[in-house]
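Would you mind writing out a protein's amino acid sequence and the numbers that encode its backbone to help me picture the idea?
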Amino acid sequence: MIIRRTQSMSNLIDLTEKIEQWAEDRNLHTANPVKQYDKLVEEFGELMKGINKQDMDMIKDSIGDMYVVMVIMSMQTNSSMVKLLEDGGIETVRPTHDTVEYMLMLSDLGQILSDGISFVIPQIFEINKQLIRTSGEYYLDFTDCVALAYDEIKDRKGKMIDGKFVKEADL
């Protein structure tokens, strides 16, 4: 089942646009997407840690963080996550996540980026579907996960070091 332009979808598109603006304000949209991939894998590790510990707060935070990273990666590869959402809707099924699928998709994305290919929307779309499945598995609202992640970063300051954004607290 595909949901199109519900209130939740409108909220997700609004949040996505805010994330894009946040990334532009910090010049993340022009950074190397391979560095963003490193961040995506880091956040995936946190998601798996949360799942293994059944830590709902960590799961929710990690889902939102992975989404934020993919929005920025989409910008870095001249793609639009908003267009992807508008064109593809949100799959609303409640299967369980598949760790092997995540790993295969992350591996595929990493290979494409290391080969210098910048068209990554199909891979991001598939990872996004897995995140939505994972949020459904744990009865979490996907848009709430993204809102949590955006609320954490919206006022964050820092600087680019070696192609990666380092938050002020870690400088």
In short: The radius of gyration is 15 Å. The helical segments are 7-25, 33-53, 56-76, 81-88, 99-114, 121-137, 142-153. The longest strand covers residues 158-161. Confidence is low (pLDDT under 50) at residues 1-5.
